[in-house]
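pasting for the record
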Amino acid sequence: MGSARVRDIVGTVARLGLAAVFLVSGVLKAADPDATYVAVRAYDVLPKLGVTLVAGLLPWVEIVIGLLLLAGIGTRAVAVASAVLLLGFMTGVAQAWARGLSIDCGCFGGGGTVDPGRTTYGRELLRDAGFLLLAGWLVVRPRTLAVLSLPGRRRERV
């Protein structure tokens, strides 16, 4: 197996893995909008209108990113968008940790205030750094194997 083929396989795994992360995260948030609102509010950085907007839009942004990655449409651009979103998530978690807030990130549904001993900020940042690496791979090399064959769909080439 040639090295280009191996890189295509790595890219495909990165794309599908990142798609699964965003789809699961988005669907869990969309399924419980009240919990999503509580999670966003717990970060204590946005005014009420900002919390409402972020809590209302975030699940759908994640679902769209996940679907586009799953289909392999605009892989590089979607990977950039996912990297920006992940950096925003990491910034939110880091500022909550630095400020001494005791919250669950709400990354995969739920969220809000928790007992101080139940925070997992370090693990959340490491996990998101791993997802950021997947997005970074796809930004640098968006070429992956076709998983779905959609009419008129072209594979990106680098």
